[in-house]
Specification:
mainly beta, 2 helices
Length: 286
């Protein structure tokens, strides 16, 4: 049976080559942009096509790409960008003798770099490796939050709005996001919006604060002192204040009277999967 790669991996390859044009073959070898593994690969490798019930058959869920900082492509930096974005498509990434995964392993937390010492001795200094999850999320074709995200499409994309996400909201603790400053001047004059869409089947609550990097935080506009309850089936969208460079988001609970309260043993925050997206408006050329 013919195999195929998860679509998000094809997006990754196109995007990296757009962000670092000198790495496009023949600038690098076509085999350095590997998807399917050779006979030397472990058959359990994500480079080997596998069947995924409910999604598809003979799908490859791993991609390699060259580590060529001299040509503008630093594999470790790319994978660290993706790690910090907490993209829900990610299973794990490997580079420079280190590995992280989207789940905790052997005393290391989810998304933490840890040493990588494979039996075959290949510590991935010459290339980066990204594995994606084995379900339909891996076919998501949204840009990865690293180099090339704003140039991988058509030439006119700079004039268009752009969204990045989905970004998972931590189940415990803060989701702290550092973003390019909103409406920062000539370099990026665009407005931006924070977006949530509740498809959980129940109401959930968040505490949202923002900072312009001046040493303090303030409640996000459109909320009640930083608190907001989002109804099931509701899309909640609010413009991000100019100059914002950091967002702090925390799950909250809702008591029987409908009040938003801090999570506790009696009142628990929604524990399922939640995401947000940030949308940037078009560049207005005068």
């Amino acid at each position: 049976m013919a195999w195929r790669a998860a679509r998000s991996l094809l997006v990754l390859h196109r995007q990296l080559q757009a962000g670092a044009p000198a790495t496009r073959p023949p600038g690098t070898g076509a085999d350095e942009w590997g998807l399917i593994g050779d006979a030397a690969h472990d058959p359990t490798s994500d480079h080997t096509p596998h069947n995924f019930p409910g999604w598809g058959d003979q799908i490859v869920t791993a991609a390699d790409f060259p580590n060529r900082p001299d040509l503008g492509l630093d594999a470790h930096r790319v994978l660290d960008d993706i790690r910090r974005s907490r993209d829900p498509r990610v299973k794990y990434g490997i580079s420079n003798g280190q590995i992280y995964s989207s789940y905790g392993v052997s005393g290391y937390g989810a998304w933490d770099w840890r040493p990588y010492n494979p039996k075959n001795g290949d510590k991935h200094f010459t290339h980066g490796h990204l594995s994606v999850v084995g379900d339909s999320r891996a076919d998501g074709e949204q840009p990865w939050q690293t180099i090339g995200a704003n140039v991988a499409g058509e030439e006119d994309d700079d004039d268009m709005g752009a969204s990045f996400g989905p970004i998972p909201i931590e189940r415990e603790g803060l989701t702290s996001l550092t973003i390019p400053p909103v409406q920062a001047g000539a370099a990026d004059p665009r407005a931006a919006w924070l977006n949530f869409c509740n498809d959980t089947g129940q109401v959930y609550a968040l505490r949202i604060w923002f900072s312009t990097g001046n040493g303090g935080f303030a409640p996000f506009p459109g909320t009640n002192g930083g608190l907001v309850a989002i109804q099931s089936g509701q899309r909640w969208s609010q413009e991000i204040p100019a100059g914002t460079s950091c967002l702090s988001i925390l799950r909250q609970a809702i008591d029987p009277d409908g009040n938003i309260v801090p999570p506790s043993a009696d009142f628990r925050a929604f524990a399922g999967h939640l995401t947000l997206a940030i949308e940037r408006g078009p560049v207005i050329r005068k």
